[in-house]
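batch job 7 of whatever, protein = ELMO domain-containing protein
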Amino acid sequence: MPPPSDIVKVAIEWPGAFPKLMEIDQKKPLSAIIKEVCEGWSLGNHENFALQNADSTNFYITEKNRNDIKNGSILRLTTSPSQTAAQLHERIQSSSMDAKLEALKDLANSSRDVTFAQEFINLDGISLLTQMVESGTERYQKLQKIMKPCFGDLLSFTLTAFVELMDHGIVSWDTFSVAFIKKIAGYVNKSAMDTAVLQRSLAILESMVLNSQDLYQKVAQEITIGQLIPHLQGTDQDIQTYTIAVINALFLKAPEDKRQFDESSVNILDCPLTEMAHILAQKQLRSIILSNVIRSPKPINDEMAHQLYVLQVLTFNLLEDRMMTKMDPQDQAQRDIIFELRRIAFDVECEPNNSGSIEKRKSMYTRDYKKLGFINHVNPAMDFTQIPPGMLALDNMLYFARHHQDAYIRIVLENSSREDKHECPFGRSSIELTKMLCETLKVGELPSENCHDFHPMFFTHDRSFEEFFCICIQLLNKTWKEMRATSEDFNKVMQVVRDQIMRALTQKPNSLDQLKSRLQNLSYTEILKIRQSERMNQEDFQSRPILELREKIQPEIMELIKQQRLNRLCDGTCFRKISSRRRQDKFWYCRLSPNHKVLHYGDLEESPLGEVSHDLLQEKLPVADIKAVVTGKDCPHMKEKGALKQNKEVLELAFSVLYESDEYLNFIAPDKHEYCVWTDGLNALLGKEMTSDFTKSDMDTLLSMEMKLRLLDLENIQIPEAPPPIPKEPSNYDFVYDCN
């Protein structure tokens, strides 16, 4: 007979004694269990003891997490969190350097546990650590020359303990003094600083900026780009990652007016990080990131890729203001830009006001504006009143005219010499292309929490967006000619150009020249071949008998998809808990029972390599108790998240299960595929329709395959029930030809 589900068999250790095997009754109060354990070793004052996991975490067992104890777990009897916190609080104030160092090391390890952290914080431990950083370390700096390793470790453990304690979100970041910020910034600004100390200091600055607008102002006053550049020029990728994370955090929190820049600005090295847009536009920082990070011989890890992606997004978001600014037809400065486009294209100077009649000048302007491809020939300023792309389109046109003058003049004159219906309108094309590029690069959207999709080529030029536009506008003109398009084909040409650009970007070109080369290979003829190949794989049969056969097969296919979704839920999925600090991932696992009646779930210490058994998942949710499945903005955990978390991608991956009255089980899927699998599976369990994009795709694929099989001429051909066996491996591979 199996033991009751409330009984857990564990081993409990006590220093200097043999471990005990015990059965823990989860219905008993935890204090009663600890008392029983203490009595077994003849220990009094059981209230001064606690149980903790005897693994790498050493987390305390509490009433909240006791259900995580599994059969076969090894626990340890130790001093209670309050006792341990009080002892460490006293030990870290020891006059002995060695004793202090050992105490701070223990504190750094213990602070990862929220139970201990709460007790230590209650003793005003955070204030003690900040005081040690502000003033206490000055005494040790005098000893630094004779005991440098000890000093580095001492400060490193102090800052590590501080970071771990603050990560629990118990104490507000707004409580810290300017002296503390100056001290942390001082560690970052020093040219030769212990790596661990530097890493913790950068992490603290990043958290300060992200969690407090007031601290952002103070940190920005203490750090300059010149002090961060040396950390990017080093070889430690972790330090480089933290450095870029600090830049990203400051940029994200900078007020809108501080993100604008003047290219005539002075010395970048002394520029405060409040002027973020100016810094990011500078060749020096960009080239350092390109040469020391992106083109480094070391492979870029996921966290660095994410920070580079965030930097790319924030840089492009500088364009949002111009993208959302309408042109003012009465603004002479803005109108002068259009005059400049005309002057460069037709090599004409602005005529004086008294030259010719007003009607003659208007007629001449109208003719030239028509050649430039504007929709409104009389007043082209009206073309830029649509947002997006607003004034950004005009900025791109002017950049192209000034920096690629020969190509600009060739395109304008080439099209003005064609018949009206065959000309590619430069003005209209530029406006629509700018809008398309903004959509492609998601200008104005916040960075995603999980994305690593940065493009190296955008770090190779100071004006990468403008150069990207210049390449694409020439591509558009080339494609227009290849398609022999007329004005009625404008939208069709734009669709082809979008396809060309998206296909080239998926190959992640390392430079703008590589992008040009790949776009050159993706001619209109090549796009037609690719599309034809894709169409052949998705052949659509429209005759009536075929459509009737499809309708007959469809319920079978839908049932097959439903079973696949439920089987995937039975296999389970590991979900990540999104916290304020991305680098400290926490995981939990959820799976459906084989009889489809219960959802089993529970927390994990790390991401599993395979399936997690039901026995290891302590929490249960009967499917019969599930009332509804909600997604996106309707999820309670999306309503609670901060502005950074509420981006489009995370919202698209969020779903929640409503059970009982107001209880929710909240999910954030690791990717779109898992999101579709789980929402489909949960809807299937509730007897609702599966409506995800993934279901539609599977339905199309399986229907197409089944239709082709049924329509094959299979007379006298037997289709086996089981697949044929895989042949044995050959005795040797001498027949393999090495092309090299």
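notes: The longest helix spans residues 544-571.
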